[in-house]
Amino acid sequence: MRRSMGFGLIFAVALTGCTTGSGNYSSTGLAPIPGSITYNGQPRTKLTKSPAGSSFPHSFTDQWGREVEEIYIIRPDRSLLIAERHYRPIFSLDDD
Fold first, then answer.
1. Core vs surface per residue 49-86: b (16+ CB within 10 A) or e
2. Which one, of 25, 7, 3, 23, lies nearest residue 15 by Cα?
3. Which of helix, strand or coil describes residue 8?
4. Greatest distance between any 2 Cα atoms in the chain
5. pLDDT value of position 3
6. Rounded distance, CA 11 to CA 16, Å?
C-alpha cells in the first residue's frame, strides 16, 4: 500500500511539472531571423488597439529566398513574441 501511494505521489508531482497554462507567454519564443518584425529589436510603435494575447501573421522572404510565415502574439507589456514559424515549400509536386 505504501509503495503504491509513493508511486502515485511521484506521478502526480511529475504530471504537474508537465502542464502549462494557456495564458502564460513568459517564454522567449523563437529567435528572430532577417525579415522578422523583431529582428532588430522590438518595434518602436506599440500595438495599442490590439488586445494582449491576440495574434497576427507576418509573411516575408528570407535571405535564402524561402517564403516564411511567422505568427506573433502580443504580450501584456505590448511587446511581440514569435510563437510559430512556418517555411512554405518552394515548389509543389502537384504543379503541372
1. eeeeeeeeebeeeeeeeeebebbbbbeeeebbbbeebe
2. 7
3. helix
4. 67
5. 54
6. 9
- What DSSP assignment string belongs to 12-26? HHHHHHH---TT---
Cβ count within 10 A of residue 14? 9
Cell of 32: 528572430
- Give the CA count within 13 Å in the CB-facing half-sphere of 70: 23
Provide φ and ψ at 67, rounded to 5°: -80, 130
pLDDT tens column, 1-14: 555 555 454 544 44
Measured CA to CA, the distance from residue 49 to residue 74 in angstroms comes to: 11
